[in-house]
Amino acid sequence: MKFETKVEKGVNIFVISGGFTFHNLGDIREAMKKAVSAAETPKFLVDLSKAKTVDSSGLGTIVSIYKTVLLKKGAFGIIAHEGEIKEVVYTIGLNKLFPIFDNEEQAISSI
Fold it and tell me: I need a surface site. Which of 25, 31, 78, 99 has the fewest CB within 10 A?
């Protein structure tokens, strides 16, 4: 797994490539926690459009970060293109917790 962090129009974006699984969560989990802690009112997106796989540990990390953002009265969303990952996100009902966007532009303008 690789990840990139960037800020666009005041929105923190974590772009995840490859697998977002139990075996490689450490660095990105810590980076996400640090970014959320540093922001007064965080706007946060997790971009899964380049991810190949996501397991329950990856999804659990996303939910954990979402809860922290919510406590700080921030905004949160996921970017997921059509495909297996988007299907999993909808199947387990994450779309009921936070918005799922098709692309970065849509996400930034809506969050």
Answer: 31
